[in-house]
Every structure is written in C-alpha cells, then in structure tokens.
Write a structure and sequence with these properties.
Blueprint (H helix, E strand, L loop, with lengths): L31 E7 L4 E7 L6 E12 L2 H9 L2 H6 L4 E11 L15 H7 L5
Antiparallel strand pairs: 1-2, 3-4
Length: 128
C-alpha cells in the first residue's frame, strides 16, 4: 500500500533538552520561556532566558535640566547668543539618584587555564 497524501487532524512533535539547575537556583525566579513560529523560514524558535542581578557599586547624584516649555526650547535652539544673554532661557531641573553597577560576574576566568569553580560558588552565594 503506497500513500501519496496523508490527511491528519493533528501531528505532535516533541523536542526536549535537560539543563541542570545545580548551582543556578538564583535564576529560577527570572527564567522565561518563549517561542515563535517564523513563517518565512518555516522554523520554530524556542528561547530560554534567565538573568541575575548585578552588583550595586554606588549611587550617584545626577542633575538633569530641560527647557521649561516648548517656547523655551525653540529659543534655546534658534535664538542668537546676544538675545539669550539679555533674555535667558528658563529651565526646569531635578536631581536624580541613579545606581551604578559593578561587574555582574567578577570571577569569570580570564584565560582557558582558570577554573570556573570560584565563579559558580559566587553565583550560588557561597562566597563574596
């Protein structure tokens, strides 16, 4: 019996890959799984994304300012300097405390001879 065409209501396809979470428990809460079917290439893309926080290095005070309204912005951009010296642009300003982050993984090996053990211990919180 030879069939040239098969009509099926549903065909199931399963692909699986097992990834060990040993040493990576801190990633559990930030893990996302997404998928997308690309009709142009007739392919299925599956993406596993995880993240862990960087080290907060310091908080820096940043002063931000901007023209008070649209007319002040036009004057700032297009008026000659002598005009602005007589009639200065009015600004609004605010001081914002912004975080500065240090390295995410301070123990990554610099060459192939180094071991990953200190890095993995740092990720799981065993050492500083």
């Amino acid at each position: 019996m030879n069939y040239r065409e098969v009509v099926a209501e549903r065909i199931g396809i399963t692909a699986s890959e097992r990834i060990s979470m040993r040493g990576l428990e801190s990633l559990r809460s930030s893990t996302e799984l997404s998928h997308r079917i690309d009709d142009a290439t007739r392919s299925l893309e599956i993406r596993l994304t995880a993240a862990f926080p960087a080290i907060l290095k310091e908080m820096v005070l940043v002063d931000e300012k901007w023209p008070e309204d649209w007319w002040q912005a036009v004057r700032e951009r297009w008026c000659p300097r002598w005009w602005l010296a007589r009639h200065p642009v009015r600004y609004k300003s605010v001081s914002i405390e912004k975080p500065v982050y240090g390295p995410v993984c301070p123990h990554l090996p610099l060459d192939q001879g180094d071991t990953m053990a200190p890095h993995v211990r740092w990720i799981i919180g065993e050492t500083e």
